[in-house]
Amino acid sequence: MCKHVTILLSTYNGELFLDEQIDSLLNQTYDDWELLIRDDGSTDNTISIIKYYADDNPKITFINENNIQNIGVVSSFIELLHYKNSDFYMFCDQDDFWKNHKIETVVNEALNCEKEEPLLIYTDLEVVDNELNQISCSMLNGKAFDKFNNLLVENTITGCTVLINQSLKSKVLKKDSEIDKLIMHDWWLGLIASAFGTVVSMDEPTILYRQHGNNAVGALSIGNKIRRFFQLKNNLNRVNKSFKQAEHLYSLYSKEMPTDKLRILEEYLLLQNTSILNKYSLMKKNDFKKNGLIKNIYFILIVCFFVNSKAS
Asked: What are the two backbone dihedrals, phi and then psi, of residue 125, each rounded to the nearest 5 degrees?
């Protein structure tokens, strides 16, 4: 059974690689798709590139050609989601390169597990440099870290590999989210899918994931990981943002959330305002942790000693 796929692409000063990305979509083995593009205020030649492709191909729609404005990447993708209904939605970045079987592979997986409940599927990716030379054959390295308790703490879902169904879209857009409380759109989608439906991880890399100096979000080098590890203020800020996002999730969905997920969410939020011993106990009980031993030790220390800690 053929399902229609709507690909959502938000652009911003993407002239260097945008044509290669769009060409990789046009070369897909799966044919029943369309591409919606929203530009977020580009000042380079991105808009001209979009117009060139949109004028030449009926599969491509430039949704805000007459209303170019910068609203930020999260708002831009949410606006794309609002544009029209489809069977499935896939998210696309301007600087990657899709393997030609990507849509077919992920849609087949979706059809194998399709349910009425919210569904999110994401895949591994191959990390490459500017010229598409391989840096790493895998970013996930076979490690799925996408249970609800995991996703409250850290996002391991890479948005440019994601497919969601109409049920998840409806669940997300049913509520009027405050964008400034969402860290990233893919993280928010993952949280809602894991709370109310199914998250599926595929080990197969389906895209070439470019790493360069202008990535909004990307894989970190070992050196950058080490430097980030020692930035206490920034790490504390990231942890506090995860709590703010979790609070927003609670305010919107607590009344309809399954009992087991609601308990996990409430106990994650409790980490902000309880004793150090209770914090450690709650983290251990619910397996609140980051993906990686060193990162997790640092996370435990930050939560226990720097997040509004009470005396034991």
From this structure: -145, 155
For the stretch 102-156, pLDDT in tens is: 999 999 999 998 678 999 999 999 999 999 999 999 998 877 889 999 999 999 9
Q: How many domains does the chain have?
A: 2
C-alpha 145 chain-centroid distance: 13
At 251-287, the pLDDT tens digits run 999 999 999 999 999 999 999 999 999 999 999 999 9
Residue 312 is assigned to a structural domain of this protein: no
**Contact assessment for residue 288 and residue 274, using Cβ atoms and an 8 Å cutoff:** no
The closest of 180, 308, 289, 182 to 236, measured between CA atoms, is 308
Say if residue 143 is in the same domain as residue 262: no
Residues 147, 197 contacting (CB under 8 angstroms): no
Domain boundary among 190, 210, 230: 210
Pick from 198, 199, 128: nearest CA to 157: 199
Amino acid identity, position 23: D
Q: How far is CA 269 from the centre of its chain?
A: 22
- What is the pTM for the complete model shown? 0.92
Residue 251 lies in a domain: yes
* Type of residue numbered 74: V
Cβ atoms of 221 and 129 closer than 8 Å: no
The CA distance from 7 to 35, in Å, is: 5
Q: Domain check: are 297 and 236 in the same one?
A: yes
Domain C-terminal end among 210, 235, 260: 210
Say if residue 312's pLDDT is above 80.
Answer: no
Q: Are residues 201 and 276 in the same domain?
A: no
Question: Domain of 131?
Answer: 5-210
**Euclidean distance between CA atoms 68 and 305, whole angstroms:** 45
Q: How many Å separate Cα 312 from the centre of its chain?
A: 37
Q: What three-state secondary structure class fits 128?
A: strand
Same domain, 202 and 278: no
- Identify the H or E element spanning 185: helix 185-196
For residues 180 and 256, what is the distance between their CA atoms, to the nearest angstrom? 23
